[in-house]
Amino acid sequence: MIATDADTQRITEIINLYFKGSYYGNTEQLKQAFHPEAHVTGSLNGKICDWTCTEFMARVTTMPTSANKGEKYDKEILLIDKTNDAAIVKARVAVGDLVFTDYITLLKINNQWMIRNKIFTN
After folding, report:
1. I want to staple 89 with a disulfide (CB 3.0 to 4.6 A). Which of 55, 102, 104, 111 is the partner?
2. Structure pTM?
């Protein structure tokens, strides 16, 4: 997706930090993308999951990561919808044989975009 203004560009950068941080298992990139009180919830193979940001980060940075396993980097922003200081991103994220749809809410806090929550399904 092509960014059309500075906020949309920054939102794209934050989502790419999440994508790369989860693929490479880079906690620092994930901390830059997620608000510390963010929550991640969703449906994984029909089972409901509910994690704090810390639990989610531990889950995606545990070895071996997708990069360590040689999985293809296959993540894509499908939609960005922004109004003032709030935004939602729809993304497609492939992890191994699973393809997830993420709905990510972001909030601009102290002039900084951050992921506040993420829900997903596969």
Report:
1. 104
2. 0.93
